[in-house]
Amino acid sequence: MMDFFNSVIAFFQTGGVFMYPILVVFALGAAVAIERYIRLVYERSTNRATWEKVQPVLNSGDFDRARNLVKDDNTGVGRLLAMGLERQGAVRRREDIEIAMEESIMESIPQLEKRTPYVALGSNIATLLGLLGTIMGLIEAFTAVANANPAEKADLLSASISVAMNTTAFGLMVGIALLIVHALLNSLTGQIVDSLEMVSVKALNIMSSGTRRRSDAAKEEKPEVKTAKPVNQDVQQTQQARQNTAATQSAAEHKTKPESA
User: Which of 27, 103, 140, 230 is 20 to 30 Å apart from 172, CA to CA?
Assistant: First the structure.
């Protein structure tokens, strides 16, 4: 173990002055990557906890209680549900609620991707610094060989090239490591965004079905008003005339009966 540590120190010391800027880039990239990883893991866990807490309330149809639960929640899922439930309380159209949730997702994505591109930038800078250090080392090597003893030129040139290549090797190692970390952070960010979209669709379906059930229940509770069948005025007049004629005939027959007797 000690031999490995000594070999690493010797490798770094023989690489030249460009090894130090590469090390600084690696330190900055690693710091950003660690901060982003902790933040994204925390965001994923809090989003899951918020959804597990609010989902049963949404399934029960108690939207007012769900609105109170996410009112002060600062997680991505909390803000998403807060905007959707706020719009659900004001309007009934599915399109309006969906637009509000999409707006919340668009606001969350920049916060999730914040500072992650710096890791990829550090990878490119480390690789380019390694190449630049090698080029500068080769220039110094050929300059030194030009003024050296002809018998020592071959040995001096090979040693100088070997030292110059250390910078490229170190730059590539840092660049590859930061590039892998950047890919992992992008994958984790994509998972969180997909989970937000999934929560948006599930919550939207629950809100739409709950609103539809309430509307159907209100229609069933509304009493049916029976409208009177309209009576044709001509038919009514005809019936009244027949009744008057029958009454006149009956009165006439009643008068003629005593006279005949």
Answer: 140
Residues 6 or more apart whose CB falls under 8 angstroms from that of 61 comprise 210, 213, 214
How far apart, in Å, do the first and last CA atoms of the chain sit?
150
Q: What is the pLDDT of residues 195-223, one digit of tens each?
A: 999 999 998 888 887 655 555 554 555 55
The residue with tokens 């637009």 is 99
Residue type, 157: L
Query: What is the rounded CA–CA span in Å between residue 31 and residue 21?
Result: 15
Residue 112: which residues within 8 A CB-CB, separation 6 or more?
A: 40, 43, 76, 189, 192, 193
pLDDT value of position 174? 95
pLDDT in tens, 80-114: 988 888 887 666 678 888 888 888 899 889 999 98
In the chain, % of residues over pLDDT 70: 77
Radius of gyration of the chain (CA): 43
pLDDT at 31: 96
Report the alpha-carbon distance of residue 37 to residue 84 in Å, rounded. 28
**Can you count the helices (H) and strands (E) in the chain?**
8, 0
DSSP secondary structure letters along 200-241: HHHHHHHHHHHHHHHHHHHHHHSPPPPPPPPPPHHHHHHHHH
Give the residue among 96, 74, 52 at the shortest CA–CA distance from 207: 96
The phi-psi region of residue 16 (left if phi > 0; otherwise alpha if psi is between -120 and 50; otherwise beta) is left
46, 52 Cβ separation under 8 angstroms: no
